[in-house]
Amino acid sequence: MADNSKIVMGPNQWGKAEVRLVHINHNTARHEIEDVKITSRLHGDLDAAHMAGDNAHMTPTDTQKNTIFAFAKDGIGSIEEFLIRLGKHFVALGPIAGGRWDAEQYSWSRITVDGAGHEHSFVRSGTETRTTAVTISDEGETFVVSGLRDLVVLKSGGSQFTGFPVDQYTTLQEATDRILATSVTARWRYTTNELDFNATFEDVRDTLLEVFATHYSYSLQNSLYEMGKRVLEKHPEIAEIKFSMPNKHHFVVDFEPFGLENDNEVFFAADRPYGIIEGTVLREGASTAPAAWEGIAGFC
């Protein structure tokens, strides 16, 4: 018979997931909009709560939700700074040893009326989402991992894929001029919290787009490395950057049965199956911080 006296509670956390809020700054006639989704997860000494039903140390998930709304009254600012402020508040409560806070931010553009952006009417901007995750460890260390998701890009030239291994199962033909398309998910880890997060995000995003557009690509892996390399060269405050970049395949349609030529003009856009390319770009000899990446789906 098992000795139940040796059964203990393992790692655990509790929080409020996907708190959706919109903050409108209407102090002037020209309104500003901040649209975010935030998840809070806390951990601490909750053995008594799990094993004896004692809730003395357990901040209700509803309180976490209400705190997020209350903090948003003063505006979001950068989502990194907002989560750092939120995390430090919860850790200061005492029984909370640490936690993880995640945010997604959705962009809106002003609707153009008579050639100018309307003061209080907006339209959602594409599919791209800005992300960040703030972790405060039990030792009080604060890690910030920021990034973006669903940044869909395509180049109709300046890309090839040749020289790959060929065996009895290979049907793919070499391409010296092809469409290269992907949906970029990127996360980067900061080494400091003393910076302008909004300005840094915009520059990293611009850099990723510039390199994708201008670098001659020998493969999506080649583009991934060059994009990450340029970000690290420009931003010493970033320790590493991770990518997940699925191929958005475009295959040249065979016009031969119709007696026509297809000079890379008409393509079949296949949504699945698709190649999935992932990788991390970091400085040689740099140490990683596993705690910063813990729980981020899709990243090893």
What does this structure look like?
With 300 residues, this protein is of the alpha+beta class. The chain has helices at residues 47-52, 61-72, 79-91, 197-214, 220-234, 290-293; strands spanning 14-25, 32-44, 96-113, 116-136, 142-155, 180-190, 238-246, 250-252, 267-269, 276-282. The protein has an 8-stranded antiparallel sheet. Strand 4 and strand 5 (142-155) form a beta hairpin. It is globular, with a radius of gyration of 24 Å. The mean pLDDT is 92.
Question: Which secondary structure elements does this structure contain, and how are they paired or packed?
Answer:
Blueprint: E1 14-25, E2 32-44, H1 47-52, H2 61-72, H3 79-91, E3 96-113, E4 116-136, E5 142-155, E6 180-190, H4 197-214, H5 220-234, E7 238-246, E8 250-252, E9 267-269, E10 276-282, H6 290-293
Biggest sheet architecture:
8 strands, antiparallel
Fraction in helix: 10-25%
Secondary-structure element pattern, one letter each: EEHHHEEEEHHEEEEH
Oligomer: single chain
Tell the overall outline: globular
The percent range for strand residues is 35-45%
Structural class: alpha+beta
Instruction: Name the average pLDDT.
Output: 92
What is the number of helices? 6
Terminal-residue CA separation = 39 Å
Number of beta strands: 10
Which radius of gyration do the C-alpha atoms yield? 24 Å
> How is the largest sheet built, in terms of strand order?
1-2-3-4-5-6-7-10
